[in-house]
Design brief:
This protein is an alpha+beta fold and 682 residues long. The strands form seven sheets. Strands 2-1-6-12-13 form a five-stranded mixed sheet. Strands 8-7-17-16-15 form a five-stranded antiparallel sheet.
């Protein structure tokens, strides 16, 4: 009676809950990676074909369906052999006993352990059906090469689910648990085939298959297939990001993921991820003085905030330092958000407002343009396209740091810094590539910033959805400001600081260089926003970059070009309803061919005509000045014309004139033309 009812003291039913792998997969079911301590994927007995079940019972326990958990004939036979050998040599365990031993007991061979095994087996038989016991057994046993359970073994050795196994394949797997290394079909195919045929013979002996099937199955090849992607690391950065998001957002630890059997649906685009990982691994990096430079990249779908691709290093593998989450000084990539966007949200500024571009100091802060050249005044448009440092600092000083920081806060780019160096991205603590991609994505969404995420949905081992992504967004800039910045940043890519590299379709963005230590490109297409950072992990003395932000700009353009070959990307940004287009900037001509002619106008007066060549832009204003002692006098102006008439000109006058072109958008004047004389030569 103690043996029969003592099982409750041996069995802890919590031990029957098996550690199960977590799968990371796309919405269409493509498994990206598996997270596990033990490579196990639990399946129900209904998913295991009858012939696979029969293969295991035939070779391990032919009376499984009849006995009550213990095969007493087998035990007597084992005891007899133990007495003859004077030591413990044979177990004669049923499938139920094997399950009890593996789950509840140690592997020591003692009489007491055997007694506990019997008690546990009897307990299992009283409290579980045969199908439930066989299901636990098939999901529990070890099949070699790190695989636990019938489903993981089926996928490992045959690249298919257990539900699709043939009779011969099921027999091969049934033969493995006895000695997985000895009978490995990859390492010892001859031994594996011999063992498989033994299992098939046992199936014939117990009536599971007939002689014709036996002969046919024993004549088949092993049909095993290795997974060629087992050593690939292209997804590692992204999956590590998923694991961190699960912990921070949903409070599920890495250890729990390894054993909990979750299904995580992620937003990765495998095509983009593979392209990005390959380019980050083998692409062109900026040279540096301290060996190979590192890099990181993030690409998001700005329509949703979903992270399509993330690469945390040039040779990233699981557990490495994930630079996608590493904060770095953003340099000039911050300018649209810390300076120009906030300014355009004010009534006082528009894209063609004039800004100071003079060498100057702001207290103890002395910014310099990257080329140390200054134009006196430039438009906001020019300042952003040409990445003028002094103009950015001057404008931030005008609009006020507290005001500008309210926009940075909304964008998730908060900083504790209080100085004007914010305008140039010179921060005590920078931002991550994910944060920069989020910010640039807001410009593509009419100023609406959407939080990035990797996990779309999580389900537990029972298939119950336990977490779903909830969109979070905030309106940062209005649609007009965002559209103005989009149009300007397209010019930055085409003709400005981000013009390096080739990408023929729609792309807006900005580069940044931080004191020879960090280089960036961040931008967006009609579909995606992204950021590329390059630099050293630590700025030790002597580590210096020897190049410009052209390198990350070229890398992003190469990635987008390859993505476009797989899925056609947009050729133009769609202008939102109700917003104005940004007028093309005006290029003022230098006039050197002005001429003056006199015509008789009656009595003693003449009419003078001044002519000059003009460009195609009919918006340019031409102001005509008469030279006078002291201060010259404006006598008139014309728009889009290369001719001006001066009437009531005395025959005795001798006067000189010149033309000054003016920009109607900014009010800025160009260089005076050559001087011409109107007089009557006798």
């Amino acid at each position: 009676m103690t043996i029969y009812f003592g099982g409750r003291f041996v069995v802890n039913e919590k031990d029957l809950i098996l550690d199960e792998m977590t799968t990371v997969e796309t919405a269409d079911g493509e498994v990206i990676e598996r997270i596990y301590t033990k490579n196990r994927q639990v399946v129900s007995i209904d998913q295991v074909p009858d012939h696979v079940q029969e293969a295991f019972t035939a070779v391990e326990d032919s009376r499984f369906r009849e006995h009550s958990g213990v095969d007493f004939k087998g035990i007597l036979r084992a005891v007899y052999k133990d007495i003859i050998a004077m030591k413990k040599v044979e177990g004669a365990s049923t499938i139920t006993q094997q399950l009890a031993k593996n789950v509840f007991l140690t592997n020591e061979k003692t009489w007491m352990r055997k007694t506990k095994e019997v008690m546990a087996a009897l307990y299992l038989e009283r409290n579980f059906t045969k199908d439930e016991i066989l299901e636990l057994y098939l999901n529990r046993i070890y099949f070699g090469e790190g695989t636990y359970g019938i489903e993981a073994a089926s996928r490992h050795y045959f690249q298919t689910s257990v539900s699709d196994l043939s009779i011969a394949q099921g027999a091969l797997l049934a033969g493995l648990p006895k000695a997985p290394n000895t009978y490995s079909p990859f390492e010892n195919p001859e031994a594996a085939e011999e063992r498989r045929n033994v299992v098939l013979a046992r199936m014939y002996d117990v009536g599971s298959i007939d002689a014709a099937v036996l002969k046919q199955m024993q004549g088949t090849t092993l049909a095993v297939e290795r997974d060629e992607d087992t050593e690939e690391t292209w997804s590692n950065s992204y999956v590590d990001l998923v694991i961190q998001e699960a912990a921070e957002k949903y409070h599920i630890s890495r250890d729990e993921l390894k054993r909990g059997g979750y299904q995580i649906i992620v937003e990765m685009d495998p095509v983009i991820q593979k392209i990005a990982a390959e380019e980050m691994k083998n692409g062109e990096y900026i040279p540096g003085t301290a060996g190979p430079v590192e890099g990181a990249l993030t690409i998001t779908d700005h329509r949703t905030g979903a992270v399509a691709a993330a690469v945390g290093g040039r040779d990233y593998v699981h557990g490495d330092y994930n630079r996608v989450l590493s904060k770095q000084p953003p340099a000039s990539t911050i300018k649209p958000f810390a300076v120009y966007g906030p300014a355009l949200m004010m009534d006082e500024y528009d894209p063609y407002s004039l800004l100071s571009d003079e060498r100057q100091a702001f207290g103890e802060f002395n910014p310099r343009n990257y080329n140390d050249e200054y134009e006196g005044q430039v438009s906001l448009y020019e300042a952003l396209v040409e990445s003028k440092n002094v103009s950015a600092v001057w404008l931030l000083d005008q609009i006020g740091i507290p005001y500008a920081k309210t926009y940075l806060d909304k964008l998730g780019l908060s900083t504790k810094d209080e100085g004007l160096a914010i305008a140039l991205g010179g921060l005590s603590e920078g931002f991550t590539p994910i944060q920069m991609a989020e910010a640039y994505g807001a410009l593509a969404q009419s100023g609406v910033k959407k939080d990035s995420y990797t996990i779309k949905q999580m389900a537990d081992r029972e298939g119950k959805v336990i977490h779903e992504h909830t969109p979070e967004e905030v309106q940062v800039f209005d649609a007009q400001t965002s559209w103005y910045l989009t149009e300007i940043l397209q010019t930055v890519v085409e003709d400005g600081t981000a013009s390096s590299g080739d990408y023929p379709k729609a792309l807006a963005g900005k580069t940044g260089t931080q004191q020879d230590t960090d280089v960036w490109f961040a931008g967006y297409t009609p579909e995606y926003a992204g950021a590329v950072w390059m630099g050293y992990d630590s700025n030790e003395e002597g580590s210096r970059l020897e190049g410009s932000s052209a390198y990350p700009a070229r890398m992003m353009k190469r990635i987008l070009t390859k993505v476009d070959q797989q899925q056609e990307l947009g050729t133009a940004f769609e202008q939102p309803d109700g917003v104005e287009s940004l007028p093309d900037p005006v290029s003022l001509p230098v006039i050197t061919d002005a001429e003056a002619n006199l015509n008789l106008g009656g009595l003693a007066t003449l009419r003078g005509t001044i002519t000059w060549s003009i460009p195609e832009d009919e918006r340019i204003i031409y102001r005509i000045f008469r030279e006078e002692e002291g201060e010259d006098v404006k006598v008139g102006e014309v728009t889009g014309k290369g001719e001006f008439r001066i009437s009531a000109f005395s025959v005795f006058d001798e006067t000189r004139y010149y033309i000054v072109p003016a920009d109607p958008l900014t009010g800025k004047e160009g260089q005076p033309s050559n001087s011409v004389r109107l007089n009557w030569d006798f």
